[in-house]
Amino acid sequence: MDATALIVTIAGVGLAAFVLWYFFFSARQTASAVSTSGGVQEVAITVKGGYSPDVIEVEHGKPVQLSFYRDEENSCSEELLMPDFNIRRDLPAFKTTLVELLPQQTGKFEFTCGMGMLRGSLVVK
Amino acid sequence: MEPTTKTETLDIEGMTCASCAAFVEKSLSRTPGVQRAMVNFATEKATVDYEPAQASPATLKQAVINAGYGVAERAPDTSAAERSAEIDRQKALAYQKLKRRFWVAVGLAVIIMPLSMLMLWPAMMARVNMQWLNYALLMLTLPVLLYSGREFYESAWNGFKHRAANMDTLIAVGTGAAFLYSVAATVVPGFFTSRGLMPEVYYDTTATIIALILLGKVLEMRAKTQTSAAIRSLMGLQAKTARVVRPDGAEVDVPIEQVQLGDIVVVRPGEKVATDGLITEGSSALDEAMLTGESLPVQKQTGDPVFGATLNKTGSFRFRVTKVGADTMLSQIVKLVEDAQGSRAPIQRLADKVSAIFVPTVVVIAILTFVLWFDLAPVEHRLPLALVNFVAVLIIACPCALGLATPTAIMVSTGKGAEHGVLIRNAEALEKAYQVNTVLLDKTGTITRGEPAVTDFVAPDQEPARLLQLVAAVERQSEHPLAEAVVRYANAQGAGSLAATSFRAVEGKGAAATVDGQAVLIGNRRLLTEEGVQLSPELLAQAEHLLAQAKTVLYVAVAGQAVGLVGVADTVRDSSAAAIKQLQALGIEVVMMTGDNPQTAAQVAGQVGIRRYFAEVLPQDKAGKVKELQGEGRTVAMVGDGINDAPALAQADIGLAIGSGTDVAMEAAGITLMRSDLRGVVTAIELSRQTIRTIKQNLFFAFIYNTLGIPIAAGLLYPFFGILLSPMLAAGAMALSSVSVLTNSLRLRAFNHH
Predict the structure, then answer these.
(1) Chain A partners within 8 Å of B370 (Cβ)
(2) Residue range B321-327: average pLDDT?
C-alpha cells in the first residue's frame, strides 16, 4: 500500500465514522411546547429538509397544536405522517398547516415524511 | 334578488359550559345589524346572520370579546374542500415543473451521451481536441445540475443541516462526486496525466442519472395521485347547494355551508340530498351506493333518515336537517378513511426501522467501497474504479420503494373498501382481518334481519285474504313489535284496511277489537283459553308444527271461533346463506352465537349452513365466547350490530360492526360495514387478504432490490465474473423500483367483490 492509498484509507474510515456519529449520535434540537391561556400546547415547526425542531416535548392529556411551515418545494417533505395518531396530512409548500392531536399516553411517538426518511418525534411526558 | 344578509361563522374560545354559549349568543344577537345568532357549545362555533351595512366580522368579534370570550383566528383556507383544491392546484403545478426539469435533463443527456462516446471512434478522436470536448460537455452538464437536479442538492444540504439523510442525499453525493471529479479532470488534466492516469470525465453519468431519477419521480407522482383518488371522489360527491324552505314558504337555493340545523330542505327526483336529516314529508327511493356500496335503491318515507350525497331517484320529499358539515355521515366516512390511511400497519415496522438507518449506513458502505477499490485495484485504474463503484452504491440504494410499500397499498385498499361500504378503521385492522380463520356471527340482526316477520298465515276454513284484513285492522291499533310484523305482512299482501272499534290490548297476551261488526281476538294461547275459545285439532296440529320450527304463534279467533294462526319469526337475510358459504370457501370456519334456545339456534344454523353454534348466550357472556374460541388458538373476527355487542367486538381480534353506521359501532369495531348484509364480511376479508398480499410483494421487491443491489453495485461480482454495475444502470433500476411498487399497489384498484 502506497502513501496515497494510506491517506485515502485513513480519510475514508474517518469520514465514515463522522457520518455515523453525525446522523446517529450527535445531540438533537429539542423544543418544549408553549401552553396558551386556553390550555393548548402550541409548537411551530419548520419543514426544510427535515423538521426543526425535530424533538418536541409536550405534556400528556392536553391538546397539542403543531403548526408545520413547509419552507421548500422539495417533494420529499410534502406529506406528514404521524402513525400513532392516525394522521396523514399534505403540507403545501410555503404554507402553514395545523395539526391538532390529543396525546393521552406518555412515550415517544415518531412522525415522518411520506417515505419515512425525514424524522422527528413527539415526546409526551 | 340580491341577498341582503351575510352569514359568518366564528370559532369561539373559552366557553366552558352551555350557559356560556347562551351568553355569547345573547351578546351577538344584541349587536346592531345582527338578525340571527346561533352558538353551538359542542362545536364551539357561532353562526351569525347579519346585514353587512350595519355590522362586520370585526364588530361581531368585538361583541364576543365584550361577552368575555375570544374569537379564534381562522386559517385563511377554512373549508376542507377549498384546502384540498389548493393542495391539488399546487400538486398539479409541481408536476408541471417536474416534467419540465425532466425534459431539460433528457434533452441535454441525449446530446451529452454520444459526445462522451466519441472516444469509441479513434478516427473521430483524432480530429477532436479532448480538452475542448470536455469543456463543451461541462457546459452542457451544468444546466442539468443547476436546473434539473437543483432540488436534490438543496434538499441534501437542508437535510444535512438537520442531521437527516434522505434519498436526495444519496443522489446529490453520488452525482456530485462524479461531477466534481470530471471538472477536475477537465480543468487540470495535467494533475492526472503526470500520475499516469487518464483524465476521464463522467458528465454522461451525471446527466443520465439525474434524468433517470427524474423519470422515476415523474412516474411516481403520477401514480401517487391515483392512490388517493377514491377518497377524493368520495369528497367530490357532496352537494354544493341545498334548496331550503324559508319560514314564509319560499324555496331558496343556498350554498351548502349555510344550511343550518333544523332547516327544511326540498329534494326533487334526480337531485342529490344536500346533508343528513329526517324526512318530514313525501317518500322516495334513494340510491345510497356511495355510502353502503348497495346498488339497489332504498325506499324511504316520512320519519326515515336520509344522508347527504345520496341520490334521490323517484319521488320528491322534504327533510329536516339534523346534521351539517363535519357531523354528516359522508364527512365521518371521509374522516375515517383518511385516518386509516394515516395509520401504520404492524407489517410496516421493520421497513420503518430499516429506512430510518438506511441512508447514513449506505453512505458509510459507499465510502468503504471507495476505500477498498482504491486500495486493491491496479494503481492506474484505482481512482476511476473507486469513484464509479462509490457512485453506483449511492444511487442504487435509495429505500423509497421500502417506504412506499405499505402506505400506498393501505391507501388504495381503504379507499376501495369505502367504495364497497366497508369502512376500515386503521391499517392494523386490515392486517388482523387477513389473519382471521374463524368468524363468529351474532344471530339476531346479523344473520337474521333482527325484527320479527310473518312467515306463515294459516286459515283452514276461511278465505285467507278476508281474515288477514280483519286481523290487520286490529293490529294496526297496536304498538307491539309482533303486531307491526303482522301489519307489514298485510300491507305487503295488499290487504285493504277496515275500521276497528273498541280496541283493547291485553298486556303480554294479545289484543281484541270489533271489526265489521265481528269480535276479533289475536294473541297467544293463554288469551284464547281465558276468553273461552276452543282450538280445533287441525289448528292445534298446525300450531305444533310451527312451534317445532321455533316460530312464535299468534292465534286468531273471530266471533268466538278459533279460525287461524299466524307464524312469526325473525327471518334470515336473503344474502346470509350465500355469504356464509363464501366465507367457508375462503377456508374460514363460521360460528354462530345467539341468546335463543338451542332449538331455534339449530334451526337457523341449519338454514344457513353453519355447523357450530352457541345457544342461550346471555349478552354479558358474548365476550366470553369470543375468548373461548381464542383459547382454541383461533384468530376470531366477531360480527355484530355494534351496540350490545360492543364488548365482544372489542374482545375479538377484529370486530366488524354491521349495518348501523352509528358512532358506537364505529368506535368499537375495527371495520364497519355500512350495509346490513353479511356479504360485507366477505368483501372485508377478501380485501384484507389482497392488500396484505400486495404489501408482502412490495416489501419483498423493495428488500430484495436493495439487499442484492448494494453488493453488486459495490463490485462484489467483479472478482468472480468481472461484472461492475454502471451507475447509470443503477439509476434506472432505482427509478423503476419505486414505480413498480406503486404500480403493484395500484393493482388493488381493480379489486371487485363479486
Answers:
(1) 8, 12
(2) 84
Inter-residue contact B249 to B345 (CB < 8 Å): no
B221 touches A: beta carbon within 8 Å: yes
Q: In chain A, positions 36-55, which contact chain B (CB-CB < 8 Å)?
A: 38, 48-52, 54
Cell numbers representing residue A95 in the block: 404554507
Residue B685 has pLDDT above 90, yes or no: yes
Identify the pLDDT of residue B385. 84
Q: Alpha-carbon torsion B304, B306, B312, B316, what sign?
A: positive
Beta strands in chain A (DSSP E): 30-32, 34-35, 41-47, 51-52, 55-58, 64-70, 79-82, 87-90, 96-101, 107-113, 119-124
C-beta atoms of B166 and A92 within 8 A: no
Contact A23 B360 (CB under 8 A): yes
Residue B197 contacts A where some CB pair is shorter than 8 Å: no
Given a contact cutoff of 8 angstroms between Cβ atoms, the answer to whether A3 and B366 are in contact is no
A46 pLDDT more than 80: yes
B254-295 pLDDT per residue, tens: 888 888 888 899 998 888 888 899 999 888 888 887 777 777
The per-residue pLDDT for range B439-469, each reduced to its tens digit, is 999 888 788 887 788 888 888 877 888 888 8
Contact (Cβ atoms closer than 8 angstroms) between residue B120 and residue B181: no
> How far apart are the C-alpha atoms of B399 and B548, rounded to whole Å?
66
- Candidate from A15, A26, A116 with C-beta closest to B352: A116
- Suggest the residue from B101, B335, B371 to mutate for an interface test with chain A (most A CBs closer than 10 A): B371
Q: Do A75 and B98 touch (CB under 8 A)?
A: yes
Sign of CA dihedral B332, B338, B340, B343: negative
**Contact indicator for B63, B27 with CB cutoff of 8 Å:** yes
Predicted TM-score (pTM) of this structure = 0.71
> Rounded to an integer, what distance in angstroms lies between the CA atom of residue B394 and that of residue B597?
69
Report phi then psi at B453, rounded to 5.
-140, 150
Interface contact flag, A12 B156, Cβ < 8 Å = no
Which active-site residues of B does the annotation give? 442
- Predicted confidence (pLDDT) per residue in B114-153, tens digit: 887 776 677 766 777 778 888 999 999 999 999 998 888 8
Residue B724 in grid coordinates: 461492475
- Angstrom CA distances, B691 to B687, B698, B751, stand at 6, 10, 10
Here the ipTM equals 0.77
- Kindly determine whether residue A117 and residue B355, on different chains, have CB atoms separated by under 8 Å: yes
Whether residue B356 lies within 8 A of chain A, CB to CB, comes out as: yes
pLDDT tens, B462-496?
788 888 888 888 888 887 878 888 888 888 887 77
Residues 3-42 of A with CB under 8 A from B: 5, 8-9, 12-13, 15-16, 19-20, 22-24, 26, 28, 38
